[in-house]
């Protein structure tokens, strides 16, 4: 016999967790179904622990920058405090009790297990069935995906989940995939003295970003001693005598560890999507501006294909909550989605890249300014690599995209995200006063340099 509730949330990533709590606080009866950890990938295996790793690696890098700038330094990397911080402060040894208590404290009924849609507005978890009067919200997220490389499935490679649980740094590391996960992890472990090589099938690192960002990262990586192989076809993988080997067409690369960071697959299999006329083999669940995927069904987060970021998941959750509660509001808009790759330099961008804008046949021009040429960049000196790149729609005179690469690139991006989001005119941006000497003051010469 099915239990009647108002809403069932399947999957408690950042968006699902937030939505379940808010709906319960609004007075609805909410069942939240989670098969792993309340909070999803971000707090346990992704954003939070990896940014603790980035912070630690950054401290080492700054320590190494002392000579010639501020005296002498001797750096002795130690992974133990990083591992301890991730275990104790970030993840509580990968135990979600605190998050689960927080959720149930808001009035949510937490059900552990795999949720499956068995009919419209109906969810089954093991032998329990729930009927959701208002509907079902999906936030099932993604899992690491490995490419079909001969032998790979038989080797004990790391994904992001094992990498954040590392208790020691491998002497050498092969990173398969030069996307966001790959480049962040490569620099972290390299700065802890691992000998790292990134192996990327595409012709550049962080392929979704501006080519200038890829070039910059490659330059910095090679300067730091990180091997970068792009345009490479891996034909096989093996693990023998404690050593991992990636077989390329004409050579073999070996290391103590292999990290596979080749993208994600959406957790849609076994979710019962066919019961509501959707395809579980699709790459994403199509949603409208109110996050509706079907009658009585909402979806938020990575599975919607609108940007695999925690802030997108949370943004969409707030819209879904509003819609479920029957409140009015603007539909989701994605023209100013910000993204930050937390390498050093940080690669931060918002909106369209130049290539994306050209693919949309927008009338554009671009302007770039180099951070080392700015007053603050020159003062900063070591570690000042970076640039600002602007993409302007010349018809409207507004920015449709921007990149802030460099020290604190993600923070500088704030100003550019406001400009893209509010469609501030480039005339207005030129009339602004930019504090001297800040990194963001380099926006001014980038505006001056806008040319077709
Ligand atoms: C290494 C790494 C670093 C990252 N760093 C950042 C960063 O710095 N900033 C940023 O914005 N983003 C970052 N991301 C991306 C970010 O982690 C995700 O975008 C974010 O977690 C949002 O995902 P989500 O809401 O779709 O759900 P997820 O976090 O993927 O969670 C989905 C949840 O649903 C559960 N679930 C799935 N199917 C079912 C089912 N049938 N029944 C019950 N439960 C189910 C899963 O167990 C999981 O807990 C990073 C990703 C990785 C891999
Ligand atoms: N700082 C952040 O916000 C942050 C950090 C990490 C991840 N994320 C999110 O997680 C998502 C997934 O990240 P990701 O790095 O796993 O995926 P990705 O799609 O960004 O990059 C995967 C890379 O692997 C390469 N690849 C695929 N098959 C390959 C093969 N056989 N051999 C060599 N290379 C191969 C691809 O060409 C691509 O460059 C990102 O898109 C991002 O949205 C965000």
Which helices and strands occur, and which strands form pairs?
Layout: E1 3-10, H1 14-25, E2 30-34, H2 41-45, H3 47-64, H4 80-90, H5 97-105, E3 109-112, E4 115-119, E5 122-125, E6 128-138, E7 142-144, H6 160-163, E8 172-176, H7 180-191, E9 195-199, H8 211-224, E10 227-229, E11 234-240, E12 243-248, E13 252-255, E14 257-260, E15 264-266, E16 292-294, E17 297-299, H9 310-324, E18 338-341, E19 346-351, H10 354-359, E20 364-370, H11 375-380, E21 387-393, E22 398-406, H12 409-422, H13 426-431, H14 443-448
This protein binds flavin-adenine dinucleotide and nicotinamide-adenine-dinucleotide.
Provide structural commentary:
Residues 337-445 form the Pyridine nucleotide-disulphide oxidoreductase dimerisation domain. InterPro entries: FAD/NAD-bd_sf (IPR036188), FAD/NAD-binding_dom (IPR023753), FAD/NAD-linked_Rdtase_dimer_sf (IPR016156), Pyr_nuc-diS_OxRdtase (IPR001100), Pyr_nucl-diS_OxRdtase_dimer (IPR004099). This is NAD(P)/FAD-dependent oxidoreductase. The chain is α/β, with parallel strands linked by helices and 452 residues long. It has three domains: 3-39 and 96-143 and 265-324, FAD/NAD(P)-binding domain (3-Layer(bba) Sandwich); 152-262, 3-Layer(bba) Sandwich (FAD/NAD(P)-binding domain); 338-448, Enolase-like, domain 1 (2-Layer Sandwich), CATH 3.30.390.30. The protein has helices at 14-25, 41-45, 47-64, 80-90, 97-105, 160-163, 180-191, 211-224, 310-324, 354-359, 375-380, 409-422, 426-431, 443-448; strands at residues 3-10, 30-34, 109-112, 115-119, 122-125, 128-138, 142-144, 172-176, 195-199, 227-229, 234-240, 243-248, 252-255, 257-260, 264-266, 292-294, 297-299, 338-341, 346-351, 364-370, 387-393, 398-406. Strands 1, 2, 3, 4, 5, 6, 16 and 17 form an eight-stranded mixed sheet that branches. Strands 18-19-22-21-20 form a five-stranded antiparallel sheet. Helix 3 (47-64) runs antiparallel to helix 4. The termini are far apart. The relative contact order is 0.12. The mean pLDDT is 98. The chain binds flavin-adenine dinucleotide and nicotinamide-adenine-dinucleotide (NAD). Flavin-adenine dinucleotide (FAD) binds at residues 10-15, 33-37, 40-42, 46-47, 50-51, 114-115, 139-142, 160, 181, 267, 271, 301-303, 308-311, 313, 342.
